[in-house]
What we know:
Elements (H helix, E strand, L loop, with lengths): L2 H8 L6 H11 L5 H9 L2 H11 L13 H8 L1 H14 L13 H19 L4 H13 L3 H11 L3 H11 L2 H9 L3 H11 L4 H8 L12 H13 L8 H14 L3 H12 L1
Helix pairs in contact: 1-12, 2-3, 2-6, 3-5, 4-6, 5-6, 6-8, 7-8, 7-14, 7-16, 8-13, 8-14, 9-12, 10-11, 12-13, 13-14, 14-15, 15-16
Amino acid sequence: MNDRLLQQIRQLPPLPESAMQIEAVYQNPNSTFNDMVKILEKDPLLTADILKAANSPLYGFSREINAISQAVGLFGMGTVRGFALASIVKKSFPLDLSSYGITNAEFAELSKKQHALVTSWYIKKDPKLLGTLSAAAFLVEIGKVLISQYLIEEKLQEKFRDSLKELQNVEAAEMEVAGVNTPEVSATIFTHWKFEEKLVETIKNCMDPENASDEIKKAAQSLHVVRVAVPINGVVTEASIEEAKALVTKYGLDMESFEKAIENILA
């Protein structure tokens, strides 16, 4: 990673105490449903953000979710932890994704759709795996914020857009112009913030899951699939679905539940 980006990461302010408390509760095997609810209810603004996210039509609930306890009951501690960390982390950065030709609203939609897809895919199939994937799906793209900032400061936006047009691959264009890709930057950010190793390693290896350890390989594979299915503009297409399905087959993941998950976020 180039020195400029490393310096940007090292200068990031520490996360608020609420993030550390959420992580401590989630990582403690003796914590209960009520422990998570109590921590979240201490922060009314965070509670409001979580409920807004949980009530997105992407999740398909027919009745409004109007309490944190209800959200934790429906989604589980791992998924609500993902909602909370996404809200906290994204408020820690000034967002300008213009280098990628997308608006901040489109960037938010990208994260929401990736998260909704992985949640629908695994909420019944493998809730334990979803505990890692939920936060990873929300946070994996955050590296784009610092890469975009770097491209703007170094006046490399036009070069990046030309590279993106020529290569038709976001990570390849990032590597060519900035020398890093989004998962690498995101993983370095969360290492700096001392997030759990499984989450960091899942993000770090999502471009090449075969290099991941057996413990997080399935999570890295699944995150790779989700990022292919929901590309940078947040628009799921027949082409992106077919490419994602090819990866599902390659990795030996459950195709039936993936297809149902795709149907759910497109409904």
